[in-house]
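stage 2 :: seqdesign
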């Protein structure tokens, strides 16, 4: 049975979370400090990109890269791209 995936990373005073719905094409939501700032109804195999901003003065833009493998039946991987540096976002278990 397909399951949801949840990725989380703290950056400075900010919390960045990505929730991926069940299955290989589930909905994707991007949260900053607990608030949804980007949403995509479904994603496909390959890489899905969501853009967001950290609420700082001035705002700090970033991207989240969600990679769903094409050939290998495995779970998605997620990374935060901020200031040109890509940082893997660890998956967290949600009970």
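stage 2 :: out
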């Amino acid at each position: 049975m397909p399951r949801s995936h949840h990725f989380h990373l703290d950056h400075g005073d900010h919390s960045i979370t990505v929730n991926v719905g069940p299955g290989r094409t589930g909905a994707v939501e991007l949260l900053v400090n607990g608030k949804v700032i980007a949403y995509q109804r479904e994603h496909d195999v390959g890489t899905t990109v969501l853009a967001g901003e950290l609420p700082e003065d001035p705002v700090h833009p970033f991207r989240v890269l969600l990679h769903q493998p094409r050939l290998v039946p495995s779970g998605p991987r997620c990374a935060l791209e901020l200031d040109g540096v890509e940082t893997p976002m660890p998956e967290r278990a949600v009970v």
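stage 3 :: structure notes
- The mean pLDDT is 88.
- The chain has no helices and eight strands.
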